[in-house]
Amino acid sequence: MERKWSVFSVFNYTFLALVGFSMIYPFIYILAYSLNEGKDSMQGAIYFLPRKFTLENYAEVFDNARIWKAYQITLMRTVLGTFLHVILCTLMAYALSKKTLPGRSFFTFYIFLPTIFSAGFIPFFITLQKLHLINTFWVYVLPLLFNFMHIIIIRTFLQGIPEELEESARIDGYGDFQIFVRIILPLSGPVLATISLFIGVAHWNDWFSGAYYVSNKNLIPVQTLLQEMLTEAEALSNSMQRAAQQGGQTVGGVGGAGATPESMRMALLVITVFPILCIYPFLQRYFVKGVMIGSVKG
Q: How many angstroms separate the CA atoms of 89 and 109, rounded?
């Protein structure tokens, strides 16, 4: 059957194609810039493909011990923080999904209240300081262990699991912990994958904690390092422009072989985004089902 194209359909597909292209193009530009010789990139006019292809920018990045350390911190906080967050939120959600839990309404309101009122940055900083978390690795993990919305999403999913499964398991002699591990967790794949993606991306993209809660350079994550490189690249670019205006003098800090702070920052940005781009397709099939939880009531 031949499909009929209306004016609206043509406009709709064209508009969506332009929106999609506007989302993808920044990644294309960053990738092309990172694969181009740094000094040549300063001339501009790089849009889709590198003009002078080189892997030197990535070699400079991987040759930097500070970047490797920052990448290690980011990986550790993302893996450990995601695992602990999902486990603790699932345990809380499993308890709240039971109507027989004493004080169920009180506990729900207790974890909901902090989402309405926030003390602000300074009281939060003082709290972290009193807990001796400032300038430690755990300042990345512990403050993100619980999230009310994640608990509610998991609880809603668990309430949809037939109670007969748990009743039959209790007849076979299973306790609450065995039921949770052997029945609840295997059936909760979609929602756990969704929550893991949410909190994992939050950990991976967080630069704020490293910038304000950590002064030890060996503990900053890669996103904070990227933000520092951005600031340094902008300062160097301004210095070079002022030097050029004052008589074409050069400014130190640019790699002699052609790499520049800007090109290295682009390479680091690609390396930073790449793991998320690799993981996301594998979680996509669970993600679509997970975000629909609670939207339809039978």
A: 15
DSSP string, 187-248: HTHHHHHHHHHHHHHHHHH--HHHHHS---TTS--HHHHHHHHHHHHHHHHHHHHHHHHTTS
- Residue-level pLDDT, tens digit, the chain, 298 residues: 556 677 888 888 899 999 989 988 888 888 888 888 877 777 777 888 888 888 888 887 787 788 888 889 999 999 999 999 999 999 999 888 888 888 888 888 888 888 787 778 888 899 899 999 999 999 999 999 988 888 988 888 888 888 888 888 888 888 888 888 888 888 888 888 888 888 988 999 888 888 899 988 889 898 888 788 777 766 666 666 666 666 654 444 444 456 677 777 788 888 888 877 777 777 666 665 555 554 444 4
SS3 36: strand
Alpha-carbon span 266 to 24, nearest angstrom: 16
Task: Name the residue with tokens 């050069």.
Answer: 250
How far apart (Å, rounded) are the C-alpha atoms in residues 156 and 151? 9
Query: Which residues touch 280 (CB under 8 Å, ≥6 apart)?
Result: 197
**Distance in angstroms between the alpha carbons of the first and the last residue of the chain:** 36
CB 36 within 8 A of CB 46: yes
Q: CA-CA distance, 214 to 98, in Å (whole number)? A: 40
219 Cβ partners below 8 Å, 6+ apart? 73, 135, 136, 137, 210
Kindly give, in sequence order, each residue whose CB lies less than 8 Å from that of residue 240, ignoring residues fewer than 6 positions away: 250, 251
For residue 273, CA distances in Å to 96, 189, 226, 270 come to 36, 25, 12, 5
